[in-house]
Amino acid sequence: MTTGFSATVRRATQILTAPKSDRPLFGQTSTLAHRQPNARIGYSLAIRMALIDFVLSSLCYVLSGQPVTDPHPNRQIDLTELLIVLFVDVLFVAPLLETSIFHFLYKLIFPQLGKLTNRTRLIFYIILSDLIFFVLHLPKRSHGIFIYHSFYQALVIGLVSGSIFSLTYYRSVNEYHFRPYLTTALCHALVNGLLVIGLTLV
Length: 202
Known about the structure:
Layout: H1 3-17, H2 43-64, H3 79-91, H4 93-109, H5 118-136, H6 151-176, H7 180-201
Helix pairs in contact: 2-6, 2-7, 4-5, 4-7, 5-6, 6-7
């Protein structure tokens, strides 16, 4: 499970520590000319990265001692509302919408960074993803049907999940030539599903 992730971390470390490194982080940089016209979704990549995300996030919650359950335990939730929460906020709409924000900001910002070194691009890339996912999961006054997040949970989602999702997207583009948007959204949905199952069993 961790072989591909370990290789990615080693390449990232080399790029961030080696002076003036312009080595591609994920193998040869892909261009539209080299991309397969009917690239498929990276199911195996999405599953591997989702498992890594789930393990790291769970460790953060366990080691911190922070509660990860809904802070409103007495609130009555009927079956219909529960299904809406699972469908809208966890498994489908939220992963697609949140990945869309990252996807289109990436398309908007990164063409302007073509002259930067790979190390600098990597730093901008991860910071962008971490910031997006942190802001999107900050505590809200009224969560309605959406799952409530504490500030600590938003921090974990931003730093851990944001980094994992950005690596999933980047590897989809430059290493495996998968469809980056759908592969990352699938990874996101799997992580959400695993966390919900984990919270249910706790």
